[in-house]
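Work package 3, deliverable 3.1, input record:
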Amino acid sequence: MLRKLTRIAVWCGIAALGALSLATIAFRRGESINAMWLVMAALCTYAIGYRFYSKFIAAKVMTLDAMRATPAERLENGRDFVPTNKWVVFGHHFAAIAGPGPLVGPVLAAQFGYLPGTLWIVVGAVLGGCVQDFVILVMSVRRDGKSLTEMAREEIGRIGGLVAFIAVLAIIVILLGAVALIVVNALKGSPWGTFTIAATIPIAVLMGVYLRHLRPGKVLETSVIGFVLVLASIIAGQGIAHSAFAPWFTFTAPTLAIAIIAYGFSASALPVWLLLAPRDYLSTFVKLGTIAILAVGIVALRPTLHMPALTRFIDGTGPVFAGKIFPFAFITIACGAISGFHSLISSGTTPKLIQRELETRLVGYGAMMAESFVAIMAMIAACVLDPGVYFAVNSPAGIVGSSATSAAATITSWGFPVTADQMAALAKSVGEQTLFNRTGGAPAFAVGMAHIFSHTLGGEAVMGIWYHFAIMFEALFILTILDAGTRVGRFMLQDGLGHVWKPLGRTSWYPSIIATSAIIVGLWGYFLWMGVRDPLGGINSMWPLFGIANQLLATVALCVATTIIIKSGKARYAWVSLAPLVWLVMVTFTASYQKMFNPNPRIGFLAHAESLAKQAIQTGETSRLIFNDRLDAVITGALVVLVVMVLAESVLEWARVVSGRKEATVSETPFVQTRYSEAE
Amino acid sequence: MRECILRAGTTMREAAKVVLAALREIFDENAYARFLAAHGMANSREAYAHYLRETNHARERRARCC
């Protein structure tokens, strides 16, 4: 009894602390607040969400069964299906879902102030993202680890499967174009950054050779060596930037774009062990380590947020990207709150490692909470900067002007004071020539992270090292995604083309490898090139396009989840996935409509094309920009049409089952009792 | 007090073990160990090359999230 009362008191305390923290960040105006309020609000909400909401879903909606054997147990083969410790699977799943998205999205959304983004990251994750990852994981576990597209085909229908396939391919292409643009914007005119990132290529190759020929299988040891070499290259980069070699590593955005496209093509055709695998290990090592030290840095420094709770740009006139809070804050913060891409991981490797069905709650729901917390840290990193500095870094030259003086004057006129001298001093402290117009989110995150780290470890003197460490950390992620994503896209394309002409489906046939690699690289390379040549910085159109594609994939995943819940005879609990689905439909469809048809040229693709067409002087460049705008509008429209088809097919299926015209059955693998229960 | 410290030490050791196991799984060291055990092979260049050949298919198709 006493224990029960203590438990109730503890949870009441957590709820009260969470409510106080949320009230503080929501209602405090006109004065700076400490970042710990965001941390406390997030942690308390996650704790309540995990303890009560995920438990409710596990017990009532998914009815997790401790006695049911998982595919890892039934189909154990020591290769794909391996019963694994729950914390190990948690780490594995988190490492697979965490990428640059939760870092970049919140930094961009910080233009509205810290409040909208923070609330969406926390609430969106607990009620949407965590739910999606968790239920899709359970559903895949109950279907021998089937993928999202297979489940869509079986439970919704053929259209669902086809749309999921096309949506996945589209999202991969758009994602790769958007993240490649972030790297280009971070590295343009930066010999230090470019040298460091270029050095990761021979380091990865060296790791591959070391791992294969000198110390076979010693991946952790090899990753530590790779990490030390990367740190050395960051320090060497500082020397390079101030030496006669600097011009060798100083490139414009178009040159960097061509280099990255060439890299993407060659990397996807090289043997896996030589570049992809070691780079993946290195990137994971740096990712896990950096996220951990960023958390420690924030708690140790407890920085003050200089960004206001809400900025004037909630009216949709923001320089980072145009559009109002609704819907654009919700598609900009993609992976930090809810991400369709996660459903691919939840129905990929992870379900084949789950040892007990009950563990899906920790892995699916819990790992997404950790990802959401990474997004909170990114929000803090962006908001510890002076707002003037934040906008100077993130605003494109097309809006604030290309000279330092005009940019500083424009940003100051918005009510966010900043001077050219202040920016020059900051650029010098991080070893860059300029920090103006560094759109894309990565440089702003790097400056914020360097600020936090330099105040907790090493002081101002090492600001440049930390800045370039952060840039390297993000670029390493992104180059890994480019390489891996190109391969995944290539295989998907080969699978599809194999139905047209069999040899094209043979993954070891070199002409097919070259042709399909070229198609995938050409597609994302086109988006990258479009972004690089965009006078508004590219991110304004690319990131929302990626956000829309990603959230539309989440819509498909939630359609699958709702269909399965209804078909399992649990229609009364369908709101668990239906509520986030309805919200996502509202957000993505509104965003898509606005990106296509909004009369403001900074928001609507077609309005922008129209405004360019009306210009007195028309060049080849103008025609290309007009074509790109129309292409973006067509892609957005096509994605929406596809998702409408899945929605319609799903709703019809729900209606048939609920009205009793169709029997409520699902294609779950038959129950087999676990042997682990006997061991207990 | 002493008991409390000992218990904390045990918990820390257990936590470290789990972290190390997670790292070994994430970095595929466990997968390689399982491969060696399943094939009755000892660690060698040839065994690792064999393991890489067998796992390439899955590794190449493994999606990384954004």
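Residues 2-60 of chain B form one domain.
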